[in-house]
Queue: 2 jobs
Job 1
Amino acid sequence: MHPIIGIVASAKDVGDVSAPTTYTAAIEAAGGVPVILPCGENFDMYEHFVDLCDGFMFTGGCDIRPSRYGEEPLPECGSIQDHRDIIELAFFEKAIKTDKPIIAICRGIQLVNVALGGTLFQDIPSQFQTDILHKQTQERFEPSHSVQVLESTPLYAMTNGKATMMANSFHHQAIKDLGRGLAVMARAEDGIIEAVFMPEKPYVRAYQWHPERLWQIDANNRAIFTEFVKACLYS
Ligand code: MN
């Protein structure tokens, strides 16, 4: 009835195992049971975490070390936590094999892309010409730019034929080259990739924006979580 959603969290991160309550609240409101997984470097434990859960969530956070996608770091690249990279990449590798649903947000979309061999813009303002402020100045619960949803993608059905959704935006990195098996689901008007999915997998969807901060005011963003939790019920 209520699927268990494992939120992948790093047990070394500032000494606590934590996830922002915006993520747990969004899962709860959609009928799921959020569980924060204390992922340390005992990778054998991940098999048990994976068995326990009906679906998985990867959350926002710091930048991924550029060498993991074959690049030297630019001066504009942000802060990095190697243990978080290592833990999340190892967990993703196990989770993806189960075919249980995966949702990934912000850093999460970047993590999924790098795990599948893709690359990132290390810093949008210095590497990509755009008029859109992807680090919005408005409050985080407010939408700031729209995204264009591609027809023939699972997200399109949620837009009721409008092919557009409101997004908030507080990222300075984004997908550059797409990882293996990923397809674009939505872009900002400047072309920046804002959502992807895996057509060959039952349910892997990732978002650059933060629907967990918009579901209270926007039905389309709310549907992102209700669809995900529903998919977890039947995984
Ligand atoms: Mn954006």
Job 2
Amino acid sequence: MDVIVKDTYEEMSREAAQIVAQAMRAKPNLVLGLATGGTPLGLYHELIRMHQEEGLDFSKVTTFNLDEYLGLPPTHEQSYAYFMQHNLFRHINVRPDKIYVPSGLVEDVQAYCAWYEEEIARAGGIDLQVLGIGRDGHIAFNEPGSSLASRTRVVTLTKETIEDNARFFARPEDVPRFAITMGVGTIMEARHCLLLANGPSKAEAVAALVEGPITSQITASALQMHPQATVILDRAAAAKLKRLDYYQWIYENRQYLGR
Ligand code: F6R
């Protein structure tokens, strides 16, 4: 696992955008896994800028989003489909038929989840998966206790996650209780995982992810087993790491490893 610490959220976002852009230039038909939430907004902002100012080309890229609330239509302002359209897709030249966001409105959810997994496989698997982390250490909506081998499925959100998300809804009771999410096992099959975290509220979860035991109680900790995981943090999110000096030393010496 590579841990990169930047001074600010903006620098963290730019570093992440460089990694995504580099992957797209190396493989124009990249299969890109995407997350929603506050964390990747700066990354998406930078990718939009690169598209508009530097011609970064998304025309051959396929995207798969991690999750969606069950019961929300894509027109709902709090749906993840709506979030992605407004914060990324409508500003870049990704083809609409190459965008996958789980649907929150399907009737046969189990068959749908199996289909979503098949589409990922049919696209050749995810090359680069962007991830955030919840305060309870979740990735996608894989809440504590999710199997580290789990696949795309319906989950019940924790009260903590519902509380965290309540700020986006008019009334707390409007926050959906269920979601469709890629599983930890699905995420672990991505060739490269790129997790971003910023702010003091994530420091504890980040320390558990990087330095704690691998446990289903912190589903992000599964990334310790991933052959290519990159964690990019701002200073506040890195504050509780014990071996911070070493991670920075590795980063400073990265050119000797040809990275
Ligand atoms: C959303 C997702 C979630 C978020 C996490 C952090 O697609 O996968 O796991 O990444 O809840 O959310 P923010 O970035 O809003 O702190």
